[in-house]
Amino acid sequence: MKPRVVLGVGGGIAAYKACELLRLFTESGHDVRVVPTREALKFVGEPTWAALSGKPVSAEVWDAVEEVPHVRIGKQADLVVVAPATADLLARAAHGLANDLLTNTLLTARCPVVFAPAMHTEMWEHPATQANVATLRERGTIVIEPAEGRLTGADTGKGRLPDPADIFRTCQDVLRGAKGDLAGRRVVISAGGTREAIDPVRFIGNRSSGLQGYALARTALARGAEVTLVAANVGLPDPAGARVVRVESAVQLRDAVLAAAGEADVVVMAAAVADFRPVSRATTKIKKTSDDPDPIYLTKNPDILAELGEVRRERRQDGKPYAEVLVGFAAETDDVLANGRAKLARKGCDLLVVNQVGENLAFGRPDNAATVLIADGDPVEIPRGPKEDLAGIVWDLVAARLV
Q1: Are 29 and 11 in contact (CB under 8 A)?
Q2: Residue 214, exposed/middle/buried by CB under 10 A (0-12, 13-18, 19+)?
Q3: Once rounded to an integer, what is the mean pLDDT over residues 208-217?
Q4: Which NCBIfam families match (predicted)?
């Protein structure tokens, strides 16, 4: 059976973007019913929604009353997503009002609900809106953080509707089996690969694309977590709802992760961190000459995962909470499990995700396979599949360790 999705549309100028979101759902095989508010129909008319969805469209509980739509639509849905969600609509949802078909649907839905807010920055930042968002999140509802950028008129700031493709990816993660078991948890994830500058043009780096780290971030968001994503040289769109901190080098990544880890319940070190960096960096481009080039002397980079483990050990000795679950990643080319077990022993983490890398393996690919080594348990094999599947299994293991 096709997943049944209710697309609620609030009365904001961003309503036109929901047409693209509707197309993404229908073209990927979802059964979509559009439920706009009365105000939304002033931006995009009923014929447009009906033509794109192939279903009747109404904002009123009084239409087709013999089918009891105000109860049936919500009860039969596998997912309700509201995009755009205006400040008014968030307020009505938070307070349980039911004065149109969409708010009735929200009250009767027993499936996951996702709100994608869109409004002016001042409206989003107002204490009333923030209180309503907090109330909805406390109930297990997923409220995506709005994007920053151009708003209505000449204004810019936070409040822009996230890209429809990002909203769609979040909804896919939810439909894939999100359990809400990370609701209220603060998660720090590193992703990508660090670059260590040789001169203003060249660097020492690696092949990590950040795909696995971003899959972990999207899955955690779909399961209700508050996510800080420390991204090293990643060219992917920001996961909707994540706080993204961009870094380049291993030292910068270390500083960003340690700064965020103090308030985190879970830290996942999925980034590929360079082991070494040049002792010195040339201030101008190194020119090619007929002479042999000068050697580049290297020094060790900080071992961020080991440092996190040591900080956690010291904090716990002092009776202070710190990173209830610590997850590391180990990319190996040979002796994969032996090297992984040695790393697990010296890093001080709870879980170590060990995978083989190399030609057409892991880096830059949409699929991955791994063995999760567990400090106090048996290893878990993850067969090759989409990186989202691996992310889901990792979060299952993490959630089981959270108190």
Answers
A1: no
A2: buried
A3: 92
A4: coaBC_dfp (TIGR00521)
Q: For residues 53 and 34, what is the distance between their CA atoms, to the nearest angstrom?
A: 7
User: How is residue 233 written in tokens?
Assistant: 């040289």
Catalytic residue positions, numbered? 206
Q: 217-250 pLDDT, tens per residue?
A: 988 988 888 999 999 999 888 887 788 999 999 9
> Which range of residues forms the domain containing residue 119?
4-175
Contacts 24+ apart (CB under 8 A), 47-53: 48/19, 49/9, 49/22, 52/19, 52/22, 52/23, 52/26, 53/7, 53/22, 53/26
Of 175, 203, 226, the domain-final residue: 175
pLDDT in tens, 72-85: 888 889 999 999 99
Are 141 and 229 contained in the same domain?
no
Q: Which of 141, 175, 209 is the last residue of a domain?
A: 175
Confirm or deny that 343 is annotated as ligand binding.
yes
The pair of structure tokens assigned to 281 is: 């960096």
Q: Indicate whether 241 and 386 sit together in one domain.
A: yes
Residue 276 annotated as lining a ligand binding site: no
* Residue 302 annotated as binding site: yes
Give 204-222 as a DSSP string.
E-----SHHHHHHHHHHHH
